[in-house]
């Protein structure tokens, strides 16, 4: 691999969620020197910051689980198995989709192990504060960490921040929310303890309790069907997704209001469980995540924007670099999700240009920030798919550094196949 002698790294990855971890490892597997920057004190993204303890998008819909993601996504699952989780696909009774259940502490540890195993230089408690750009290339980033600020020069960059933080600093134009600026609703998954592992949660009783609560309760529950309920592995606590709030804009004031309102709702809803449902008399709120679950913020300009029709038709294409298999899941109104299945053979291809920044030659996207219109975004944003787009972005960034390859689609595809990725 050929690089400029003054570069500190071949590839810098912004964001340590599913996409960022996959990008960092994918690049490192090619021999690249990689820096992974994460603002929290742990990796994992929404799974560990927001208690989204289920990987979605690793499998296609249907009566049996068919893999849509291999490569680094499945390396993560294998590492979870080594530390006590079964890692098997589980079919949600609410949606019928195949998911893989998680434990937050095991996941943090597993991801630490993987990035260290591949020699990634991880910088936690660190943000990208500014960028240096010359014409159509990024030259360097300034990292703000506990020890102050440092300037890092790299050959290629990946934005896997979920919020387009790197692309925004680089001056890439972006869209906020959908085409009218509306953001999808937030959800705060809550972990409820104090219930017997043997208790069969009666959804009919839960729906009745919600109906009674909504008559006089201070914070009506929008998910009148009871929401998504998962009994977690190991602890058998109940993960409950029913705390939904709208987000009017991306200001700190709006996020503050949403976080506080969600916590009020969480405590009130658990109190309702104790009062209303047999078997929940000793229920208590074990935890909310460090951050409320965010579905959507900024969409930076890419060289290709996937359309909802690409998903609905199950479009396959020669320049594909990953598969999208999760249905279009939209949360335009808090507590009222809608789902539209993928057509064709059960997945569609994500094209190479959807992970390439517009008008920048050495910036790639992974995860939520890839090019997608509001409908396509409802499919591609989930963590299982983020592993696939992140791995592709990391491999493409490393391929760009290598003077013998220079990031042609066929070269990136070949390297992804060599890393056992599905295309």
Automatic annotation (TrEMBL):
The keyword Protease does not apply. Gene3D superfamilies: FAD/NAD(P)-binding domain (3.50.50.60). Keywords: 4Fe-4S, Iron, Iron-sulfur, Metal-binding, Oxidoreductase. SUPFAM superfamilies: FAD/NAD(P)-binding domain (SSF51905). GO terms for molecular function: 4 iron, 4 sulfur cluster binding; metal ion binding; oxidoreductase activity. The keyword Metal-binding applies. Pfam families: FAD_oxidored (PF12831). This is FAD dependent oxidoreductase.
């Amino acid at each position: 691999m050929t690089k400029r002698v003054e570069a500190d790294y071949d590839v810098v990855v912004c964001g340590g969620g599913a996409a960022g971890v996959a990008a960092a490892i994918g690049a490192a597997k090619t021999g690249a020197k990689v820096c992974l920057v994460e603002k929290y004190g742990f990796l994992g993204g929404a799974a560990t910051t927001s208690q989204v303890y289920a990987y979605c998008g690793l499998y296609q819909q249907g009566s049996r689980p068919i893999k849509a993601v291999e490569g680094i996504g499945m390396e993560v699952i294998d590492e979870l198995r080594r530390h006590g989780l079964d890692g098997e696909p589980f079919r949600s009774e609410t949606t019928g989709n195949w998911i893989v259940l998680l434990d937050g502490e095991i996941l943090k540890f597993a991801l630490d192990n993987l990035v260290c195993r591949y020699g990634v230089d991880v910088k936690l408690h660190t943000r990208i504060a500014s960028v240096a750009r010359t014409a159509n290339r990024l030259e360097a980033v300034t990292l703000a960490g506990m020890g102050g600020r440092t300037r890092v020069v790299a050959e290629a960059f990946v934005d896997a921040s979920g919020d387009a933080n790197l692309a925004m600093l680089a001056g890439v134009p972006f869209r906020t929310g959908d085409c009218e600026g509306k953001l999808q609703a937030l959800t705060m998954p809550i972990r409820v303890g104090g219930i017997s592992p043997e208790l069969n949660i009666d959804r009919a009783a839960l729906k009745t309790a919600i109906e009674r609560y909504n008559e006089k309760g201070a914070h009506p529950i929008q998910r009148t069907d009871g929401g998504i309920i998962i009994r977690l592995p190991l602890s058998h606590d109940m993960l409950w997704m029913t705390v939904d709030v709208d987000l009017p804009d991306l200001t700190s004031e709006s996020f503050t209001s949403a976080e506080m309102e969600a916590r009020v709702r969480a405590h009130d809803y658990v109190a309702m469980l104790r009062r209303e449902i047999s078997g929940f008399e000793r229920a208590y709120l074990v935890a909310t995540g460090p951050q409320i679950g965010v579905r959507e913020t900024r969409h930076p300009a890419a060289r290709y924007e996937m359309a909802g029709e690409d998903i609905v038709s199950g479009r396959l294409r020669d320049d594909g670099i990953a598969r999208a298999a999760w249905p279009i899941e939209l949360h335009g109104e808090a507590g009222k999700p809608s789902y539209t299945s993928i057509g064709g053979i059960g997945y569609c291809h994500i094209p190479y240009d959807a992970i390439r920044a517009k008008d920048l030659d050495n910036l790639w996207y992974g995860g939520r920030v890839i090019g997608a219109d509001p409908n396509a975004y409802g499919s591609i944003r989930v963590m299982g798919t983020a592993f696939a787009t992140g791995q592709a972005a990391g491999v493409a960034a490393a391929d760009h550094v290598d003077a013998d390859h220079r990031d042609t689609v066929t070269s990136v595809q070949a390297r992804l196949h060599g890393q056992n990725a599905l295309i």
